[in-house]
Amino acid sequence: MSKKKIFVIGGYGYRNVGDEGQLSGNLASFYQLMKEDEVVVATPNVSFSKSIHDASKFVEALRSCFFNQHETRRFQITHRNKKSILKFLGNEFYKIRFVLDSLILLIDCFFLKHRVPLRLVNRKTRSLIKELSSSDILFFSGGGYLTEPTLSRLWDGFLHIMIARLFGVKVVMSGQTIGPINGFVNKKLAMWLFSKCCAISLRDGQKSVECLLSMGLSSDSFDIVCDDATFCSAEEVMNDSSSYIAYQFHYWGATDNNISRAILDRNVEIVNYVISKGVNVKLISMTPSDELPLSQLYEKVKDKNLELTDFKYDIGYVVGIFKNAKLTITMKHHPIVFSLGQLTPVISLNYSDYYHHKNGGALGLFGLEEFGVDIFSDKKLIFNLIDRLFDNAERNVLIGKLSLELSNKSDKRQEFLSRSFS
Asked: pTM for this structure?
């Protein structure tokens, strides 16, 4: 396969191990397929991304160098109307600003293509556009950012596709959750722009498929594969794989303090039940915001068999913890992905439609939907799932099934990337 220049964008750069795992998995795949590739990574945090990833070059992402996401509200727009009239008007104002700024950038790109330097954008943005325009492929590293609830990220994705196609750069989307996208204009734009992509792979086989089909895209315009972080390499962090379960929870999506307390109390009940089975529990942070809820859980349980692990941005170390666990129990998506990729059984505790979609999709790819439950289900149902996965006979059957599915997903991912880069 001939040498390519790949320009990568994605949800990484915010100190979330899951998003970094997606980028890490993709970079490893690139260099495995094409060892002499030039890979340019656009990131909102260049110094951080450089410290944990290996790429040919790192440049400041458009959302930082052009939209100034840390200084203005243009990158905090939402699709929902605000209750306050002032917040509503403010949100609409910044949506208009986002669109106008995007038009200015597209005009600058149009004239740049025809070698007429208008210089309507700053130096860093011009440098990024030159890197993108000279690339062979614009590669969307996996994630759940092409959705209407994350409107600024969706529009940012639209803008990247427009720029790429203006310069004749192929667009590949990998490991994506698509939708919900319900607004008339957003849906029409998505239909038009996603149809310009030469390849799309999804990380769930239901909701994203329904969203793309509802736009009028055909079923042969995308592939159902897996999350880009599924095949991240693990470090060996300990020898005894039967001595603990990996545990993660958070409050993301909780609308008030009463719900947060209820989530905490339910997790305390589950952890106490696991410890009563004679199994240790390791509390795992995936992002700095996880540390507070996990420390609160640790303080409420206060048992010698409960360990609060130090947070690390070392992807191999985190994946290694999930690999060596007897079981993973989590409210987040990427502990599911890391665990299944290492043949570790998982129970997903879902809160909100967002996580039922996201986590259920990850389990569904492996035929394990039954191990995703609402966190406020009857606790006996959750305890029963734990007991089943502690049973060696059922556990071995599940691992055998998972191993076959992983082999199939690995072949499909390899085929998808080879076809996309040909």
From this structure: 0.90
